[in-house]
Amino acid sequence: MKSSYLAHGKVIIIGEHSVVYGYDALAMPIKALHIKTTIEPASQMWMETARYHGPLFDAPAEYDGLKYVIKHLQKKANNNAPIKVTYTGEIPMERGFGSSATVALGTTKAMNHFFKLNMSEKEIMAVTNHAEMINHGKASGLDAATVNSDYLVFFNKKMGPKTLQTKLGATLLIMDTGQLGNTKAAVTSVKKLLDQSDAAKQRMAHLGELADLTKNAWLKHYPQTVGQIFNEAQEILHSFKISTAKIDQLQKIALANGALGFKLSGGGLGGITLSLCENETTAQKIVAKCEDIISDYWIEQI
Predict the structure, then answer these.
(1) Going by CATH, does the domain composed of 171-301 fall within 3.40.50.10260?
(2) pLDDT band at 185 (very low <50, low <70, confident <90, very high)
(3) CATH 3.30.70.890 spans which residues of the chain?
C-alpha cells in the first residue's frame, strides 16, 4: 500500500518578521509550485529527495523537522515497520516559498492516510507547526496555514488564519534572486536588533500595521495603495538589514519600469522579491530588464 499527498508553496504578501511578534500578516498560496510526498513500505527506513538519497534518520540537519513528523506519527500509529518517504516536484529551498512547511504538511497528511490515523485538521496543523519550529527556531504558523489553503490567508496569531477570496485586481511578479535566504539567521539578527533598539521596535509595530492596511486596500481593490504599502514595508525590512545588494538592484529596476510597489518576501538575506504591477505587460517589461540577474520568475494574477 502506498499513500501520497500533493502540497503547494506560498509567498508572504506582507508581514514577514512582524508576524513572529504577534502582528498580522497576509500570504497567498502558489499552486504552480508543489511537492508530492509518497509513503510506502520498505526494507529499511529510507528517504528520497532531490538533494538526499539514503537512510532516513541519517539525513542532514535540514531534514530534522521531517524526521520529527515521521517518528512522531509512527509512534502514534504504534507501528515501527520501515517505510520509504519520497519527495517529488520542486519548490526552491530557502527562498521564502514555504518549502519546509509544504513538505512537513505533505508528510503529515500522507502518513495520516498511510497509517489510517484519522487525525483532525487541528492535530495535523499542530504536527506541521512543530516541525516548522524545529526548522526555523521560531515559527508563527503562517506558512503552515497558507500551504494548507486554496485562498489568500490573513493571519492573526490570536484569531488564527482566515481565508480571503477577494481578488485585488493586479498582477504579481515574483522574482527569485537565486540567493539562498536563511530564515533562521534573519529571524535571529532581527531579534537582536529589536533587543537593542526602541526605534527598531517601533518600525516592527508599523510593519504589523501595514498588514492591516494591505488587507483593507485589498478588499477595496486598491492596487496603487497596496503598491505604496509594499514600498514602505521594503524600507522597514531594509532597515532591519535583511535586504541584499541584489534585492536593492531589482527594486530600482522594477520601480523604474512601472511597478506600483516592490518588496522582498520571506526571511530575507536573499530569496524572492515581489513586484506589484497593474498588468502582465508591465510585469513582462520588468522581467526583460531583470532576466540576466535573476534565476527564475513567476507571474500570478491576484
Answers:
(1) no
(2) confident
(3) 171-301
